[in-house]
Amino acid sequence: MTSSDSRIEWAVARLPALRSRNFRRYMAGQVASIAGTWLQSVALGWLVLKLTHDGSAVGLVTAAQFAPALILGVWAGAVADRFDARRAVMGLQVLLGAQAASLAVLVFTDHASLWSLCLLAMVQGVGNAFDQPLRQALMNETVGDRELPNAIATNSMLVQIGLILGPSLAAVLIPTVGIGWCFAVNAASYAVMLVAIRSIRPDEMVRRPRSKGADASVRAGLVYLRQRRDIRLLLVVLAAGSMLAYRLEVVLPVLASRDLHGGSALFAVMTASRGLGALGVSLYLASRIGPPPFQFMRRMGLVMAAGLGLMAVPFTPVVLVALVPVGLGMLGSVGSTLALTQLLASPEFRGRVVAVWFVVMNGGVVFGALFTGALVEHLGTRETVLIGAGTMLVLWAILGRSARVLEMRTDHLTAASATGNVSPSAREGDLE
């Protein structure tokens, strides 16, 4: 046995989802695509700040990027439940790649302006509104039920690797060859994802139940959610955090430029530091057989609050260190809500439920980006991150007494996943 074979066996033993050839191919494309997305995110935020010198403008472009998902997200979930996710995701890679290439052309020709960046951000938002639930649906069909919790966690881990790689590459590209090449590289990353998805073998996919006719409607999905108090509580956690505590894409460029007197490289390193913390918790989640217990989410929220409080210290090394627990806590709380939401939902409703999760998250991004941008301009970055820390503390204090039902349900699901017996009774029940 070669050393490479030993490494593969070691990885598969700890990440059982990697036994699936289709899942491995999907993940290879996903890492490249996510790294490119974060590369573009850093470049776009820095470009807007460079053009306008206004934190509110960064918030505006961020809101423009996520607003379409707020409007289209639930319908996108119905698409994910009804149509072939593999074909749909392939088409979306072409759209998103063209959007990134358009950004590169604007920068290379010196025609970038705030309105053009907002417009292209909205194009990306339309693509992402459908791409997010459809990618989740496609990933769910690359593994069996027993490996699904580990697949979700492994996907989250590789997303965080992309979060480190993308900003790290931005720290090199922006000062050396310029912002335009960041967008060009992201366009190429969508081509990598397209090739990876084309290589997925349809005959080896695990086909999930698909809704047809009236059952595939948006209304049916919303009726289902009204019956699921446990999932609604997860969405409350997500909504409050995504609006008031998670908007670092608005805070970090201003913090790096104004408060710490750094440049694009510092901004990129700060983003990568957050990714380092997120990678740590994603490794833990990927090593689990089932989803995390509810108390884990609560602890991660408190860790994030502590990190945000430490970020208020106006000293670069302290901020870089503080961003590690911020990233750890953010993924631990947000990533857990996504994993639990997918596992709690019935398979035939999963696409629409996940779409609602993204609608709630993206809605928090839209309003949170505008609100955070205004706070940064009128109060300052220090006060803004302290408000975020306070939000996490208040949120978990309020939920502490009302989340007993969710805690019981998620702990039951964790135990069921460990045996590979995630029955409908483990997912559902009278929760009103």
From TrEMBL:
The chain crosses the membrane at residues 26-49, 55-76, 233-256, 262-284, 296-313, 319-341, 353-376, 382-399. Its main location: membrane. It is a multi-pass membrane protein. Residues 1-407 form the Major facilitator superfamily (MFS) profile domain. This is Unannotated protein. GO terms for molecular function: transmembrane transporter activity. It is found in: Cell membrane. Coiled coil: none annotated. Keywords: Cell membrane, Membrane, Transmembrane, Transmembrane helix, Transport. Pfam families: MFS_3. InterPro entries: MFS_dom, MFS_trans_sf, TM_effector. GO terms for cellular component: plasma membrane.
